[in-house]
Amino acid sequence: MNKVKVNGYEFEVDERTGTMIASGALSVGKTAPRTHRAAKAGGSRHEESDHDGHGIAARFNGPTIEENLSAMNGKINQGSYKRMENAEVALLKTGASVQTERIAYAYSPKAEDGGVRPEAYLVNDTVTYNNREKQHIHLSFTNMEPKEQGEMNDVVSNMEMPEILNQGDRLREQMTAVQYAELMESTDQYLPDVRGEFCQGNSQEPVAGSFRAEIAASGEEKSSGASAAETRGGENHSHDHGHGR
Fold first, then answer.
1. How far apart are the first and last CA of the chain?
2. Interaxial angle between packed helices 80-93 and 211-218, expressed in degrees from 0 to 180 and rounded to the nearest 10
3. Could you report the per-residue pLDDT of 50-60, keeping only the tens digit for each?
4. Helix/strand/coil (H/E/C) assignment for every residue in 147-180
5. pTM higher than 0.85, yes or no?
6. How big is the chain by its Cα radius of gyration, in Å?
7. How much is the pLDDT for 160?
């Protein structure tokens, strides 16, 4: 890994794949200048619909350097990734702190000319509120057009999966299929979903300008693909796996 530290953030780049990891405490109030770059991020693997996407945005004082830029699908950059950043800004303005790790994950080795295009973006945020409560938020973004992701989801949903019982699920063995299905449906009603993202603790009210509010406003709440939030030992652990949103 090649490492460089700029504006208080640390950037690491894997020499074989070009996977980039940016980490540090997000800050607002100082915007890094956007310097002109002749070459496009990603080199030969930069697609027509891609932007030079910042891992750490300029509004968080993220620098315009090679280690902080990647070939990011434009709709992701201006859509779900931007809404995440809006939520982080809203949190910082309430006095909370946000420690972040952003990964531009590339599976394939670099092209011969060094070109790289990440398959996905992973974001791990630890939010510390004024009352010292912590919330761990994990988000993922597939680096492709939302339409392509939707088509892929359709293929997967139409696949015939074998009926394999969970060997440890004794409760299921004692119930009929109808009884078990009704139990699962009633249980789902009590599981938190993406509406709990970027909310302090278990509060049902979103932080002003939060990720939850942004999604609700854009009418994408049902397509977020978020999994349940877990609360352990006084810390809230939220997980979101957004696919090409």
1. 30
2. 140
3. 999 999 999 99
4. HHHHHHHHHHHCCCCCCCCCCCCHHHHCCCHHHH
5. no
6. 20
7. 73
